[in-house]
Every structure is written in structure tokens, then in C-alpha cells.
Write a structure and sequence with these properties.
It is a single chain. With about 575 residues, the chain is α+β, with helices and mostly antiparallel strands. It is about 35% helix and about 25% strand. The chain has 17 helices and 28 strands. The strands form 8 sheets. The protein has a 7-stranded mixed β-barrel. The protein has a 5-stranded mixed β-sheet with strand order 1-2-3-4-5, with helices on both faces. The chain has a 4-stranded antiparallel β-sheet with strand order 20-28-25-22. α13 crosses α14 and α15 packs antiparallel against α16 (about 530-540). The longest helix has 18 residues, at about 415-435. The radius of gyration is 39 Å and the shape is elongated.
Length: about 575
């Protein structure tokens, strides 16, 4: 029998009074600050075995019904009587029946009918075997107390072998990663309402990898970060975790800034006088920890997008965007900050809206050219010119039609407009000539600059001269001896060469591009290691291939069919009138 099955069986084998005590222990730990109280003796008089709150002020009530053999008509009657008595005597807001079994489908329908009948009067719930066993899995001390011989975990076996069962939390943290489960179990014994996740950081000061998921609190100790996540939502709703922080005068000023603007604040050193919280067991030795506090977004703002139209106009410059989407970055009691999320716009726009109408808003605009399409950049440059010269931006809320005029705070603008626009104009001319849609790179490489220079030259008449150190090709041995000698004589005495390729440039800005068919004309070249290659060539079998390298003593001519089809068809036309085409 598995450990889980033994727990289910153990529940049904308890004495009725022991079952009530078990329920008290579990409910008390689920709601540690709810002051759960047990009723002595026969609780049937008023339909409560456990309760939270004041009896004359709508308490939460738990009724323990030890029905190990199932629920039939007799047991249903007992449940109804207890419920009616509790409603008459105590008027609870919640009434939870605790059972050592799980309900069958017919019984589920029966309890749902009761819940519907009393809707509006009381919230009726069932705390059955599955929920009880789940809590026992997370609450080892209770499990050991009521079922000492039922479960022996792998973490407990490791503890016996490594003698770690008497160690403190600080000592357990020093163990290797194989004991992570044991440390998590240690935390669960302290408070099983939460799940715990441990992350070993290579750099504890690195903020690029924040906790993921619905993390309530994170504690970093050395290279170990402990993330606390909600597990028992019902328990946390009834008994929320608490944090009490006492700050100095300078710390209080920062906290007021946090509330007013919603800007995350760091509290450390003398700013923190003391901290007490539900999570003290995670860092018991840190009397003055470094605190990072922020304010979450209200439900009506979290995940919501705001749509605006933006108009930029000043002097001879103008640009407009019909739709820019924004999301809320932070919200305080005095102001809200929004940030643009539209990826098709090469601008990062953030603006602050004061909730006090007497204050003016402020907008921050910076370029976001990396990763943007080249064809989107000219409009962005025009917009930046406008805000640089006028210092104002006009936004219109597309939902309400209300206009916003915000003062500009220039934190970063594209330097040297003229130079960048000239570069952009040349690059776009190249892209349009070949039908490319290019993405502006994060880093411009030397290869990109060389390719752009060659392409800029070739746009004039379809011809460009390129400096190369050498050319490598594949040499194929002809079928017959006579053809081999004729070919070698021609190759060895030829001072010029023409190579034909399907495309010239393979990559630009890290993106594959194609120029179409091209021909490369090489003048004044020599074969590298000609004697060695000659021996290999004549010793090879017909059809055998071998590499051949040419040394170029002058620039090569590049001809693109797309831009100069006539010259592509007659490449040697004006190269050298005294030398006929080979």
C-alpha cells in the first residue's frame, strides 16, 4: 500500500474525537492568525466543533462529521440538522463540514442542492479526505502526531543518513543542492500555506532575472534566493500574510514617494529600524535587511492597454501615428506612468499623467531603432526633429477623444540627425532597388559596412570594383588527355578570369539577401602554387575535383544582371580593347 493510500485509510480508522482534534490542528495551521477555537464536549447543541471570530458576530464554523463508511440518509439528516442549528444559533458566514471520506457523485449533487438552497444566507463548503490528505502531505508535524507509522519520506531518510535533522535553517542552507528538498520541507513545517522555490544565483546583484510567477516575497541570502508563492488560497484569503516595517524619517519620506508615484524604492541601512512579518522564519538573523518595495497595479489597470493617436508638427517637419498602444508601468495616488508597447514604431514613449489636474504631464521619448524596419525609421526621425525643436507632443485618447499636450523631457535623441539620415537614405535606396525589407541591427559590423559600400557603388550603373585578396574555385579534370592539356595551357596563360554566381551578397545586417545573378571579372591574376597544382591536375582521374586559388593583383569587377543586363550579357565590352574575350 502506498503512503498516500495509508493516509486515507488512517483517516477512516481514527476515533471520532481524534478526527475532531486532527481537524483543529490542520485548520489552526491553515489560518494561523484567525484564532481558531475548538468547542469542548458534544458540539451538536449549536452545530459547531470549531469556529473563528466572535460567536455573536457571524463567525466561520467548522462541523466535524466522522462518517468513515459513507453518507446515506441517516448521515444526511445529521448534516442538515447541524446546519440548521448553526444558522439558528450562530448565523455564520461560512459553514464547513469536515469528513474523513470523499463524496460520491450522488452526494456531490446532494451537497450542491444544499448550497443552492442556502445561497445568500451562508457559504457552505466541504473539507473532505482529499483536502485533509493534501494538507497532511505539506504538514509533517501534524502527520507525525496522528499517523506516526504511516509515512516515511525520502527527505527523512536522507536526514537520518546525513544527520541533518537537528540542523537549523541557516545550517541547512549551506548544504549542497541534493538537500534542497529537505530545506523546502523545513520551510513547509514553518508555514505550509505557501509553496517555496529556491534559486541559486551566479550573481545575487543581477536584476536581469527577477522572480517569475505570483511571488509574494523573495529573500536573497548569499547566492540563494527563496521565492514564496501562494499555495492555500482559501487560508491566505481568510488570514492574509502581514509585514510590519518601522522606518526612520528618511525611510518614511521614501515610502511616501513610493505611495505617491508608485516608483519602487530600496530601503537599507539606517532607513530600516525593524521588520516583522509572516516570513521571518526565512531570514531570522536579519534584523535590518535590505528591502525592495513596490506597489502592484490596481486590477482595473493591470493588463489593460490604452490607445492614443500621436501628432508631431513643427516648422517644416511633421509626422503622425494613427495608433500607439500603451500599458501602465506604475501607478501611485498622485500619478500614473504609461509606456508604449507598439513594436512597429521605432520610438520608446513614456509619459506621466498627474491625477491632480493642476499639474502638467511629462513625456519622455527615446529612439528604438535597433530591431526596427528600415522603412519605419524616416518617420521616426521626423518625429524626433519635431520634439527636439518644439518640446511638445500632442496625443489624443482614441477611446475618449480627449487631447493631451505634454512637455517633453529629452533623455536621448539620435545624435547627428544629418549624418544618420544620409546613411539611412543610402541604405533604403539599396533595399528598395533589390526589394529587401531590412531590420536595423543592434551592431553594425565591418562586413555590413563593406557590403553597403559596394552596393551603393553598384547602384550607379550596375558595376562595382571590389578589392579582394584572392579567389578560390573548383577545378575539374576533363575526360581526355588532350582536353586536359589544352585546358591547362589556356588556364596557365590566361591573365583574366570570369566567375558567374547566382548571387553576390549572402548576408546583410545578419539577414539573408539576394542580389540576383552576378558576374565577377578578374584581371591580372596568378595561380597560387601553380607547379604543385599542375602535378595534381594531371595525376587526377577524369571528373575528379580539386581546389584552385588565384592571387589577385588588382580589384575585381562586379556586374549585376538586375541593374545592368546589357553589360552582364557582354562583360568584356570595354575592359581592354586590345585583348579579346576568352
Amino acid at each position: 500500500m502506498s503512503s498516500i493510500e495509508s493516509l486515507y485509510r488512517g483517516l477512516r480508522e481514527l476515533e471520532p474525537r481524534s478526527f475532531e482534534k486532527l481537524c483543529f490542528q490542520i485548520v489552526s495551521e491553515r489560518f494561523p492568525n484567525a484564532a481558531i477555537k475548538a468547542v469542548m464536549g458534544n458540539a451538536g447543541d449549536e452545530g459547531a466543533d470549531l469556529f473563528s471570530g466572535k460567536l455573536d458576530n457571524s463567525p466561520a464554523v467548522w462541523q466535524c462529521k466522522f462518517f468513515p463508511d459513507g453518507i446515506r440518509d441517516s448521515q444526511k439528516t445529521q448534516v442538515k440538522v447541524s446546519l440548521e442549528r448553526a444558522l439558528q444559533k450562530l448565523k455564520p458566514t461560512r459553514w464547513i463540514v469536515c469528513l474523513p471520506i470523499d463524496l460520491t457523485i450522488p452526494n456531490q449533487r446532494w451537497i450542491q442542492r444544499i448550497q443552492e438552497k442556502y445561497t445568500g444566507r451562508v457559504q457552505i463548503e466541504v473539507f473532505g479526505a482529499a483536502e485533509i490528505v493534501k494538507e497532511l502531505i505539506y504538514r509533517k508535524p501534524i502527520r507525525d502526531l496522528f499517523f506516526p507509522n504511516h509515512v516515511l519520506e525520502a527527505s527523512e531518510i536522507r536526514s537520518l543518513l546525513s544527520k541533518t535533522h537537528d540542523m537549523s535553517a541557516a545550517e541547512l542552507e549551506a548544504l549542497s543542492t541534493q538537500n534542497v528538498d529537505e530545506l523546502i520541507e523545513h520551510f513547509r513545517q514553518k508555514d505550509a500555506r505557501f509553496n517555496y522555490r529556491l534559486t541559486f544565483l551566479t550573481d545575487p546583484t543581477d536584476s536581469k532575472h527577477p522572480p517569475v510567477g505570483p511571488v509574494l516575497v523573495s529573500v536573497t541570502k548569499g547566492n540563494l534566493r527563496i521565492d514564496v508563492l501562494p499555495r492555500d488560497l482559501e487560508a491566505l484569503k481568510l488570514d492574509p500574510p502581514s509585514v510590519k516595517i518601522q522606518l526612520s524619517s528618511s525611510g518614511r519620506r521614501k515610502f511616501q514617494e513610493l505611495l505617491r508615484k508608485g516608483v519602487t524604492q530600496v530601503f537599507e541601512g539606517d532607513e530600516v529600524i525593524s521588520v516583522k512579518s509572516t516570513f521571518d522564519f526565512l531570514a531570522p538573523n536579519h534584523s535590518k535587511p535590505r528591502l525592495l518595495l513596490g506597489v502592484g497595479l490596481p486590477k482595473h489597470l493591470a493588463g489593460k492597454t490604452f490607445k492614443y493617436k500621436a501628432n508631431f508638427s513643427s516648422g517644416g517637419y511633421a509626422a503622425s501615428y494613427d495608433l500607439i498602444e500603451f500599458k501602465v508601468l506604475r501607478a501611485g495616488v498622485d500619478e500614473v506612468e504609461l509606456s508604449s508597447i507598439s513594436t512597429h514604431i521605432p520610438l520608446a514613449i513614456q509619459f506621466v499623467l498627474p491625477l491632480d489636474q493642476t499639474r502638467e504631464g511629462e513625456i519622455v521619448i527615446s529612439s528604438r531603432i535597433e530591431g526596427s524596419r528600415l522603412e519605419d525609421l524616416p518617420k521616426a526621425i521626423q518625429a524626433l526633429r519635431v520634439v527636439y525643436s518644439s518640446g511638445t507632443v500632442h496625443l489624443t485618447d482614441l477611446e475618449t477623444g480627449e487631447p493631451l499636450e505634454l512637455n517633453l523631457n529629452i533623455t536621448e535623441l539620435l545624435p547627428l540627425f544629418e549624418k544618420f539620415e544620409q546613411f539611412l537614405e543610402h541604405t533604403l535606396r539599396i533595399a528598395r532597388a533589390f526589394g529587401w525589407s531590412l531590420i536595423y541591427p543592434e551592431t553594425m559590423t565591418e562586413s555590413d559596412q563593406l557590403s553597403l559600400s559596394v552596393l551603393d557603388d553598384v547602384l550607379a550603373d550596375g558595376i562595382a570594383y571590389v578589392g579582394v585578396n584572392g579567389l578560390t574555385a573548383t577545378l575539374v579534370r576533363p575526360p581526355t588527355e588532350i582536353e586536359t592539356r589544352q585546358f591547362w595551357q589556356q588556364l596557365n596563360t590566361q591573365a583574366r578570369l570570369m566567375l558567374e554566381q547566382d548571387t553576390y551578397i549572402q548576408e546583410l545586417f545578419g539577414q539573408p539577401v539576394s542580389t540576383g545573378p552576378c558576374r565577377i571579372l578578374v584581371d591580372n591574376l596568378k595561380i597560387k602554387n601553380v607547379s604543385k597544382l599542375e602535378r595534381q591536375f594531371f595525376a587526377a582521374k577524369p571528373g575528379e575535383q580539386m581546389p584552385i586559388t588565384f592571387i589577385c593583383n588588382s580589384k575585381v569587377m562586379l556586374i549585376l544582371e538586375r541593374l545592368n543586363p546589357e553589360r552582364f550579357a557582354n562583360p568584356w565590352k570595354t575592359v581592354d580593347p586590345e585583348v579579346k574575350k576568352s
